[in-house]
Amino acid sequence: MVANLEKRYTLEEYFELERNTDERYEFFNGEVFCMSGGSSAHERICRDTLIHLSSLVTGRKCEAFTSNMRIKVPSHPPYRYADVSALCGEAKFEKIGGVDALVNPALIVEVLSDSTANYDRSEKFRYYKSIESFSEYLLVAQDGAAVTQLFRTEDGEWIYRDFADLGAVVHLPSLDCDLSLREIYRNVTFPPPIVPPLERDEIR
To answer: Of 4, 7, 17, whose CA–CA distance to 99 is shortest?
Structure first.
């Protein structure tokens, strides 16, 4: 979440706002948060993740969607926006407030920022887990090559894995393909690491 509008909204007022603006907003119990306005690194990672995923599933009945796609979240209605979402099979939609919302994503990707990281890792993940088809979650850092993968096994257990190397490849069970960190970070330049100054005793 980036910022919230000061007034409290009814759900009907929120739907009206969504239909009459190019911005993306999420609704939380009367509060409305703007989801637009990511950094250049955020935008490049989202774009390249979408392109890479789309290339991996070319020729198969799979689809990847941008951050403009609304996703229905049963436990915290009406819907949420993810940075990237994807599935194999037929995409299903439901009209909510006069707009289409995807109801059956399998993979959801969030690119982390300082303002959203805690929310994406905790509350938003819990909301997403109420989606019956949802089985895999990727949390992608933008200040360094780091991806956290969570995927659901057949017995309902969620497995957690971390990847922190540009040479790493993440196997995605939800799409049955391998995602390369080098591809999703291909247009991002990371800041150099901060090296602490040497103490006097270390110089001797």
So the answer is: 17
How many separate domains does the chain show? 2
Q: What is the mean pLDDT of the chain?
A: 90
Task: Return the number of other C-beta atoms located less than 10 Å from residue 24's C-beta.
Answer: 16
DSSP H helices, 104-180, are 117-121, 123-128
The answer to whether residue 130 sits within a structural domain is yes
Peptide bond into 193 cis (omega under 30): no
CA distances to 16, 48, 55, 125, 174 from 73, in Å = 19, 26, 27, 11, 19
The answer on 33 and 46 residing in a single domain is no
Task: Pick the closest to residue 105 from 66, 76, 132, 140 (CA basis).
Answer: 132
Tell me the pLDDT tens digit for each residue of 124-162.
Answer: 999 999 999 999 999 999 999 999 999 999 999 999 999
Bridge-based pairing of strands 107-111 and 93-96 is unpaired
What is the separation, in whole angstroms, between the first and last Cα of the chain? 49
